[in-house]
Amino acid sequence: MSFQLGSSLLDACVLAVLAKEDAYGYSLTQQVREIMDISESTLYPVLRRLQKKEFLTTYDRPFQGRNRRYYRITDSGMEKLQELRSEWVEHKQKIESVLLGGINGE
């Protein structure tokens, strides 16, 4: 079974991966794919949006005669990640109460 994942959860996953270490696009896609089914064509607009909101910055590093664009989480990105983590815990508890315990938690 596959659940539809919203953009906020995708943002949280991308930010969480980048909170561990900087990553270039393909590497980042592979790491996020371990969590959810996503293509590079889906991920790059997310990265641009997060960059526009100043949650990410980029820098280039040479690799085999070409430049690789790396993404780095900013301080405001870390703050957003903390906010999204808190929201996730609350949301997860509500979903689990319904799926695992019924509406009244029984």
Task: Please describe what this structure looks like.
The protein is an alpha+beta fold. It has one domain: Arc Repressor Mutant, subunit A (Orthogonal Bundle), CATH 1.10.10.10. 59% of the residues lie in helices and 17% in strands. The chain has helices at residues 7-20, 25-33, 40-52, 75-101; strands at residues 23-24, 56-63, 66-73. A three-stranded antiparallel sheet has the order 1-3-2. Strand 2 (56-63) and strand 3 (66-73) form a beta hairpin. The model has no long low-confidence stretch (mean pLDDT 89). It holds the Pfam family PadR. InterPro entries: Metal_resp_DNA-bind_regulator, Tscrpt_reg_PadR_N, WH-like_DNA-bd_sf, WH_DNA-bd_sf. Residues 14-83 form the Transcription regulator PadR N-terminal domain.
How do the strands and helices of this protein lay out in sequence?
Elements: H1 7-20, E1 23-24, H2 25-33, H3 40-52, E2 56-63, E3 66-73, H4 75-101
Number of strands: 3
Average per-residue pLDDT, rounded, comes to: 89
Q: What is the fold named in CATH at topology level?
A: Arc Repressor Mutant, subunit A
Number of helices: 4
Enumerate the spans where pLDDT stays under 50 for 5 or more consecutive residues.
Answer: none
At the first level of CATH, what is the class? Answer: Mainly Alpha
Q: Strands across the major sheet, in which order?
A: 1-3-2
* Anisotropy-based shape: elongated
The string of secondary-structure elements, in order, is HEHHEEH
Q: Can you tell me the CATH architecture?
A: Orthogonal Bundle
The CATH homologous superfamily is called: Winged helix-like DNA-binding domain superfamily/Winged helix DNA-binding domain
Number of domains: 1
Distance between the amino and carboxyl termini: 25 Å
Instruction: Briefly note the structural class of the backbone.
Output: alpha+beta
Q: Radius of gyration from the CA trace?
A: 16 Å
Largest sheet: 3 strands, antiparallel
Amount of beta strand: 15-25%
Percent helix, as a range, is 55-70%
